[in-house]
Write a structure and sequence with these properties.
The structure is a single chain. The protein is an all-alpha fold. The protein has helices at 2-29, 50-60, 73-76, 123-132, 141-149, 152-162, 169-180, 189-194, 203-213, 242-245, 247-259, 264-269, 277-280, 312-320, 343-354, and strands at 232-233, 289-290. The protein has 2 domains: 50-180, Cytochrome Bc1 Complex, Chain D, domain 2, CATH 1.10.760; 189-354, Cytochrome Bc1 Complex, Chain D, domain 2, CATH 1.10.760.10. The protein starts with a helix and ends in a 25-residue tail after the last helix.
């Protein structure tokens, strides 16, 4: 009898747990609506200060934070190219070509995952990954720290901001991250419309919005304030032809297979970017990449992880056709289906996507301080 009662109690407890879990699952299946962008989150261990932001601005443009002092953050995130790089594959360290398209850093402060495969969880960890990456900045900590120490203005700023007796390289990344958190755009036509300005969107953009949230189903992945679910998908984006035509790009592609730890068989046979697989080593993740935000995309062509499409119309046409084919098409998401949009509807949808971008963001490039001999300790 006691056992029977215990069974009933356990079942009741299980039901009490299951009901809210089912409700949570149902809520999670609903796409978050588009929303205006608020202030960016600031980590508790790297608070913003004016001095830190100014230091980060200088370091962002300083090529001395790299291997041969020729490559700065701004080299691959050029403000005149959408704070990205307007080629299919980003510029590499001298003598190399990068292997993926450079994403804009505008609004990157809101991402929970950075890089195309989400390999960095914060701006503080993204910066050194780029500055020290073999086909990016190729910098070494001790060399970069030594350069900073030979610049009196940096010594003074690092002391003021971080209390460093000599500049520490990990604090350089914190300063750069603080600067990047100021590069946000919260006043796009879409933001203004969602805050109540009924005239912020044109009639064409309103028609595009209806398609975006309806028949085109863009909202399935491009939702919320950042217009991204930050999940990973294989869309069937075709491989980069440049890997077959450009020897330097092919070398980088093969190098990355070794660096990412693939099997020898895969190294010899793979002819496409396996994306998330390099992190998880799950075959089902081959060809998957994180959904990018649609914000500021008006200025960031070309698009996709390998720069496959050169304008937003090409991107929408790709989706309208139901995606494409790549080496890992068996993993292609079922969300990609032919849309049957007319040419006019494609134009309406592109017009609405352009509403995710406001005016171009430009800032004054700082004048960087020169090297000077270190002071004599005896003086």
């Amino acid at each position: 009898m006691l056992k029977g009662k215990r069974k009933i109690v356990i079942s009741a407890i299980g039901l009490a747990i299951a009901v809210p879990l089912l409700a949570l699952q149902a809520a999670s299946d609903e796409n978050p609506p588009l929303a205006p962008l608020g202030d960016p989150p600031i980590p508790l261990d790297n608070p913003q200060t004016d001095e830190k932001i100014e230091l980060g601005r200088m370091l962002f443009f300083d090529t001395r934070l790299g291997g041969d002092a020729s490559t700065a953050c701004s080299t691959c995130h050029n403000q005149e190219q959408g704070w990205a790089f307007s080629d299919d594959l980003s510029r590499g360290y001298p003598g190399t070509v990068h292997w993926r398209n450079s994403q804009t850093i505008i609004n990157s402060a809101y991402y929970g995952k950075l890089f195309w495969a989400g390999s960095a969880g914060s701006l503080e960890s993204q910066a050194p990954s780029a500055a020290k990456g073999a086909v990016a900045g190729n910098g070494e900590n001790d060399v970069m720290e030594a350069r900073l120490a030979f610049i009196p203005e940096y010594r003074e700023l690092f002391d003021t901001v971080f209390g460093d007796v000599w500049p520490r390289i990990d604090n350089a990344w914190r300063a750069i991250a603080a600067f990047e958190r100021t590069l946000v755009q919260t006043d796009t036509p879409l933001d203004l419309f969602l805050r109540g300005d009924e005239n912020a969107l044109t009639e064409q953009q309103l028609r595009g919005r209806e398609l975006f949230e309806g028949r085109a189903n863009c909202i399935q992945c491009h939702n919320g304030a950042m217009a991204t679910d930050e999940r990973y998908y294989n869309l069937g984006v075709p491989p980069a032809l440049r890997w077959e035509e450009d020897a330097a790009a092919q070398i980088t592609f093969r190098f990355e297979q070794i660096a990412k730890g693939v099997t020898e068989e895969l190294y010899r046979e793979i002819k496409d970017d396996a994306g998330l697989y390099y992190r998880t080593k799950e075959v089902s993740d081959m060809g998957k990449f994180r959904t990018p935000s649609l914000r500021y995309t008006l200025y960031t062509a070309p698009y996709m992880h390998n720069g496959a499409f050169w304008d937003l119309t090409e991107v929408v046409e790709f989706y309208n056709e139901g995606g494409g084919e790549n080496e890992f098409s068996e993993n292609r998401t079922d969300l990609i289906q032919p849309l049957g949009l007319s040419d006019d509807e494609i134009e309406d949808l592109v017009a609405f996507i352009e509403a995710f971008s406001g005016p171009e963001i430009r800032i004054e490039v700082p004048t960087l301080p020169p090297y000077q001999p270190l002071p004599n300790p005896a003086d």
